[in-house]
């Protein structure tokens, strides 16, 4: 008897849950804001290749000294410079005679992420990084730069409020059209679908640097947030 009663109570609970779930209006709200960047993140790689591993490391270290001097000239703080990868790998070349890969030397690559807090200096910084010290066996590559802002979090928070208000307006219109009333907010979840900082990809070399000074346009950063809101109705 108790087993039958337990099953009946479980069934009643499930029916109640389904009925409660049906008394909802579920909507999404989206908001987007733009802001001017005040940071630029630059990806730099220092590389060198040589017949011996130690020689390649020494050549890469020499190139890094030049890069470090540029950092100092532009007053970039230590906390805004990060080495995110360092590799020392053998290089191979396919030998047609033996039909085998033949080791030709070693290649060192040190990847750096640098944050420049004076975005107006970005062009001059790129020109300074690309120097005439780049050779066939060592150099510095700038692979990308990304515009960002230290006010991004504040703008995201403000946009979140806009998204919630947009969801509420949508829910109220649906309720009005359906002839029902909103009792309360059941749940609101944030789907942070913000657009990330947009990277600008380029390869800079000596020829470009000598032809003209580098000019880069920052544009605006787009911050997009989305919420999903469930409103209880009667």
Distinctive features:
single chain; 234 residues; alpha+beta; Alpha-Beta Plaits; 5-stranded antiparallel sheet; 3-stranded antiparallel sheet; 5 helices; 35% helix; disordered N terminus; Outer membrane protein; signal
What does this structure look like?
With 234 residues, this protein is α+β, with helices and mostly antiparallel strands. It has a domain at 39-148 and 199-216: Protein of unknown function (DUF541), domain 2 (Alpha-Beta Plaits, 2-Layer Sandwich), CATH 3.30.70.2970. Helices cover 35% and strands 40% of the residues. It contains five helices and eight strands; from the N terminus they run H-E-E-H-E-E-H-E-H-E-E-H-E. It has helices at residues 2-22, 53-73, 122-129, 152-178, 206-211, and strands spanning 24-35, 39-50, 81-95, 100-116, 138-148, 182-191, 199-201, 221-233. The strands form two sheets. A five-stranded antiparallel β-sheet has the order 3-4-2-5-7, with helices on one face. It is elongated and about 80 Å long. The model is unreliable at 1-20 and 199-209 (pLDDT under 50).
